[in-house]
Every structure is written in C-alpha cells, then in structure tokens.
Amino acid sequence: MKITLNRINDDFLFECTNAQGNSILLDNTSQPGAKGVSPMESVLMAVAGCSGIDVVSILKKQRQDIKSFQAEVEGERVQVDDAKPFKAINVKFLLEGEIDPKKALKAAELSFEKYCSVSKTLEPNVEIGYEVYVNGEKI
C-alpha cells in the first residue's frame, strides 16, 4: 500500500492520492479558508469507513435490507507534550431498514473486535467504543 502526498498551494493544502488515483484533500483546518480535512479528522473518517465497510458487508451476507447507513464518529484528544493524540473514539452507527437489531449489534462487535484494521492499528493507545441504532432505537 502506498500513498503519495503533494502540496498544492503555498500554504498547507495537500492532495493525498492512492495507487488507483483516488484522492482526498488535507489542510490545516485551524487556518481560515481551509479546503480540506485535517489529518486528525481523516483518522476519524478512516475509522468510520473501515468499520462501516465491515458492518455493511456482514449485514449484506446475512441478507439484511439496509435502506440507510450512517456513522457519526467523535474523538476525544489529550495533550501529550506538544501533540494532541486521540484518547478515545466513539462510533455511532445509524441504520434504517429491515434489519435484525441483534445482527446489527453483532456486526459492529465483529468489526471492532476482529476485522477493522484501522481501529486495530489505534489500539491499545486509543479506547474505541461504539453504539448501534436500528430504525431509531438504540440496541
């Protein structure tokens, strides 16, 4: 796996591109007019994307009818010397459709305990939690 980062303006805007040519923009979001996400926001996005792929994949294999899937991710940071790494990350899955709530909860559990490479990379330094809602009801 390889990512290429290119600076695309005179400030802090970078384009990160993967081997397939897909890219995201990273920027210093503490500056006005930022045109990309911060690197720390991209970590939260990676947790959401990785676990989201797992959950959807597991539920599709179980023939669950997902009409809508959303994840909200919040990170809590702590000061360590001059850096502010994540101390904790919480993922809230919001699913709609004909979905067995027990299967949705199990899919999230499997993602974080077994499959999600991003969350596994962050452990044990970051406490990762999750919540699952199916059709508005917390499971």
Give a nutshell description of this structure.
The chain is globular.
Identify the overall geometry: globular
CATH level-four homologous superfamily name of the largest domain: K homology (KH) domain
Strand content: 35-45%
Low-confidence stretches: none
| Helix/strand/pairing category | alpha+beta
Which value, in Å, is the CA radius of gyration? 17 Å
Order of helices and strands: EEEHEEHHEE
Protein name: OsmC family protein
InterPro entries: KH_dom-like_a/b, OsmC/Ohr_fam, OsmC/Ohrsf
Organism: Chryseobacterium sediminis
Pfam families: OsmC (PF02566)
Keywords, please?
GMP Synthetase, Chain A, domain 3, about 140 residues, 3-stranded antiparallel beta sheet, OsmC/Ohrsf, OsmC/Ohr_fam, OsmC family protein, KH_dom-like_a/b, 3 helices
Walk me through this protein's architecture.
The protein is α+β, with helices and mostly antiparallel strands and 139 residues long. The chain folds into 2 domains: 1-29, no CATH class; 39-138, K homology (KH) domain (GMP Synthetase, Chain A, domain 3), CATH 3.30.300.20. The chain is built from 3 helices and 7 strands, in the order E-E-E-H-E-E-H-H-E-E. The protein has helices at 39-61, 101-115, 117-122, and strands spanning 3-7, 14-18, 23-26, 65-77, 86-98, 127-134, 137-138. The strands form 2 sheets. The chain has a 4-stranded mixed beta sheet, covered by helices on one side. A hairpin with a 2-residue loop joins strand 6 and strand 7. Helix 1 packs across helix 2 (101-115). The longest helix has 23 residues, at 39-61. It is globular, with a radius of gyration of 17 Å. The model has no long low-confidence stretch (mean pLDDT 97).
